[in-house]
Design brief:
This protein has about 500 residues and is of the alpha+beta class. The chain has 16 helices and 23 strands.
């Protein structure tokens, strides 16, 4: 009887547990964000080859595959995929029963539609390489390539681009592209509630998210361009997480009881781009001038002053952890050598370099670099632009003289080179024939060793020609308040922002 009673009790407990509903999402997390939020970041089709849009995409949308904790390419909307032995087809098996926020069920038609309408970074190389996208059945989609392309998954199924992030075909067709940006509908863990331009974005938990229901009910992102204001909001409890706190303010954050400094190390390299180097009338057309600029920068001092030593000094625009990355020797801080190079190039007294255009959230870094340049006679003026405007003008080739560039997008050496070095890259103002030839050669090479050798040779040429003045692999410093149990910062290796949002927790 005792054994029987225990069995009955166990059954009753199991029934009671099954009848108990999952804990409902509750509470609110508020971010003080360092940039002005723009509707273009809400649409995966316009992803510009930088990490910023993924701040929103990881909440509103989902992808066939994406980086997740412990995995660089985790199955998401696609349960699995496989490539044919000849490398010409990739077939994705989609997850059954996935719902968009408006109740529509995701199918292979949505995957094909999302690829066809994609117009962001690397869209040309994707469209040039893919012969057809075939809907095999509602849960199976096949990509047919024109020739074997070893980087297909790296470009498509990772945040190197936004091409693999899926939107609902019927809804987009009904509201149009502009209507979609005003009221985006996705398949992510949070649904869109409201957006006040220049003020805030509000999202609420989507309990039907396939991976798991979020535990935090509401997410609020407030645009706060002023760094000291972000820190003040964190101190007052008006924000739970504050992005991009640098220098003396970051030290103050560290000293404040109840606040926690949360650095992330994204795939984020920042560099100075000499966009006029292909103009023979520009001083930057002379390699010695570009070399001189590299020798003016005291990167170590800048690292300590701005990012408390968390950044990694580099001489490449390709993160050292990327596949096929080659790390050049570091540029020395040598103003005397810089002046000698300038004199050899015909500028013994320096020259007026015009505007130094920079994303306004990194204006302080730009000011320091302009001061270093000025010390050897290269006189420039900092011109800060709000981030969305900055990258719009950048890709429309409207910026001149000096541009402080950067990218935190995932990928490998080839994806970074495609966007910023190759002739058809979204942010490329010119290219060199030998570099371009190597880029085309590596793109079709299926042998990993030969491909790596070609990419290394290409990166060596970029360094030898001093195409850029790399600054650092950015140490991105953030703060978290006392209510936060899990901020999501650093959960995904190489991702700058909080994610995955369904894993966030309050105390």
């Amino acid at each position: 009887m005792k054994h029987l009673s225990a069995a009955v009790l166990l059954i009753l407990l199991l029934v009671a547990a099954a009848a108990t509903p999952a804990l409902a999402a509750e509470g609110q997390l508020t971010w003080a964000v360092h940039i002005s939020l723009a509707p273009t970041w809400f649409d995966p089709a316009e992803t510009p080859g930088i990490v910023t849009p993924f701040m929103m995409l990881y909440a509103l949308h989902d992808a066939v595959a994406k980086p997740m904790p412990g995995k660089t390419m985790a199955s998401s909307l696609a349960e699995s995929w496989k490539a044919s032995p000849d490398g010409l087809t990739y077939e994705f098996v989609l997850r059954s029963g996935v719902k968009f926020h408006n109740g529509e069920t995701m199918t292979a038609d949505d995957v094909k539609f999302s690829f066809d309408r994609y117009r962001g970074a690397a869209n040309k190389i994707l469209k040039d390489k893919v012969r057809a996208v075939q809907v095999v059945d509602p849960l199976r989609v096949r990509f047919v390539l024109k020739e074997p392309w070893p980087d297909f998954l790296t470009f498509y199924a990772s945040p190197a681009t936004g091409a693999g992030w899926i939107v609902p075909k019927k809804y987009v067709e009904s509201v149009g592209d502009e209507g979609f940006k005003k009221a985006p509908v996705g398949a992510g863990p949070y649904r869109f509630v409201s957006f006040t331009p220049g003020v805030e974005l509000v999202m609420e938990a989507f309990d039907g998210y396939w991976r798991k229901a979020p535990s935090v009910k509401r997410l609020v992102f407030k645009s706060v361009p002023e760094e000291s204001t972000r820190l003040a909001m964190l101190k007052r409890g008006e924000a739970d997480i504050a992005y991009s706190i640098r220098g003396a303010l970051a030290e103050e954050l560290q000293r404040t009881p109840g606040l926690t400094l949360k650095p992330t190390i994204p795939h984020g390299v920042q560099w100075v781009n000499f966009v006029d180097q292909w103009d023979p009338k520009s001083p930057w057309a002379d390699r010695r001038v570009r070399q001189a600029a590299n020798h003016t920068l005291d990167r170590n001092a800048l690292n300590q002053a701005e990012t408390l030593g968390f950044s990694r000094i580099t001489a490449s625009i390709v993160p050292h952890i990327f596949e096929f990355a080659w790390q050049p020797p570091l540029w020395s801080h040598d103003p005397a050598k810089a002046k000698k190079l300038l004199a050899e190039a015909g500028y013994p007294n320096g020259f007026n370099a015009g505007d130094y255009t920079v994303d306004s959230s990194y204006a302080s870094v730009g000011e320091a670099i302009v001061n270093y340049l000025g010390a050897v006679g290269i006189i420039a003026k900092v011109r800060p632009l709000e981030r969305a405007a900055f990258f719009t003008q950048y890709r429309e080739k409207k910026l001149h003289n000096l541009v402080q560039s950067g990218s935190g997008a995932a990928g490998n050496a080839a994806t970074r080179i495609e966007a910023f070095v190759s002739a058809e890259g979204l942010y490329t103002y010119g290219s060199y024939p030998d570099i371009e030839g190597l880029f085309r050669e590596q793109a079709v090479e299926r042998d990993p060793r030969r491909r790596e050798a070609t990419l290394v040779k290409l990166q060596q040429l970029v360094h030898d020609k001093a195409v850029f003045a790399p600054i650092w692999e950015l140490g991105f410093l953030n703060g978290a308040g006392p209510r936060v149990a899990e901020s999501g910062l650093g959960l995904i290796a190489g991702h700058a922002y909080s994610a995955p949002y369904e894993d966030l927790r309050l105390k």
